[in-house]
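Sorry to interrupt, but I need a hand with the structure work. Could you add the entry underneath, on a fresh line?
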Amino acid sequence: MAFSILIKNGTVIDGSGNAPYSADIGVSADRIAKIGNLSGEAAERIIDATNLYVTPGFVDITNHSDVYGTLFFVPSQESLLRQGVTTILVGNCGESLAPVARRESLLGLERWTTGFSVPINWNSLSEYYENIERLGVGVNVATLVGHETLKRNANSKEERLFLLEKSFSEGAWGMSSNFSFADWNGDEEGELLGLLAAVKKQGGLYKVHIRDEGKNFLPSVSSVVSLARESAARTVISHFKAVGRGAWADFEGALGIINAAQNEGVAISFDVFPYLRTGSMLVSLLPAWAREGVSEDVLRKLGDPAISAKILAELKSATLHPERILIASALNDKSVVGKDLGKLSARAGIEPEILMVELLKINGLNISVFGKTLSEPNLLTGAKYAGSIIASDGAGYDVAESRFGNLAHPRSFGAFPRFFNLISARAKIPLGDAVAKITSLPAKAAGFSDRGFLKPKYIADVAIFHPEEFKDSATYKNPYRYASGLRFLLISGKLAIEEGAVLPERHGVVLRKK
């Protein structure tokens, strides 16, 4: 029987961590049918992969296309496709777009959407998935349930557990928390462990944005390790990093804490993004107590003279380094985009902390920044760490989004080729291991049983690219530039990219955990 697609003469890096080898791959319908010497075999379409690498499609497990709104306004997710990404896991950092028991619970998400208004007309996770399917998207989509989402949509721990379990029955892959939110405290640990018992029972993933990536980095990592140990839930720390020079020296110690836990059998790992600038909302730099609540609550505090004075005092004691904070997007005042807070402050003749508060008020909190706060040696060490995962921590865009006058973080356009062709080489990561960090390791962490490897009977999500030409070109000042070098991309055995061109039909599917 003829294959639907036959990939011939390629260098196969199959996701196992093993060395590359030469082989042909036969695809039938949506699955890989056969791997080996398939000369003489018939196929409806033959792809000559001579001098090209053939790998599993990349799996991005820290992705924000949902809360950023781009999943709905850029359903092609072209900036991800051109990187070789075939599957994204959303619902990260405590925030998901389902379940929605009451619409007002989503007001706090306005600060994340960079000006988009997500057209929410669903309540349950099942209805959310159905909306994505009707829309049609370019990549496969799976979601976690946000811990903060549960809190805003339920009044008691029993209701939160009910919503989580119902979401599991409708195909959720796990839960995420964000401990940097102010309303988390130790009293809630018992309830959290109850939620994690449900995650463990379902074989789900627990993703965590730690409380403090700066001066309290080590205790923040230790607390997550303790949760992973006590709950036995499979746990991944999202965008693992030490922020600020004062925390850089703690990075090795944090790895030591994780390594010791892993040696005890604790199921914990982490992902990193391959850049030295963070990308976050400016509001996240406020003291934790000041950013508690929905946007209206935060703006009310900023507008109150007494409370604002207290916020300014704490900001001044925190050492902002305004020259390292680049304004990336702003809802209303586009004149500040692309400029650093230090220069803006000097030009305006006011202290940077005061300017920061004014910018938040003018833009309704919807203003994002890039922070030059990370260490390259730490990045390379984290990327090389056995079992670590590479993720974008970004979202899918297309180049037309530049018309809105904002800057996307370049990781949304180049994280995976940047890791593959630059960071992995600097970190001296063997080729097989580098591919595993963007394919099988994130797939296994998420719980995907038939993706992440090139094996017979696995879903035919396949990336085919030129070893030297697969590169990123997006920069902080000019991020809307696609990666180059990807020749073909298959999603469920269908061509999404052919000879470097994105095809119009979208082949992404919703992945429901069973």
Q: What stands out?
A: The radius of gyration is 22 Å. The mean pLDDT is 94. The first strand starts at residue 3 and ends at 12. Residues 281-371 form one domain.
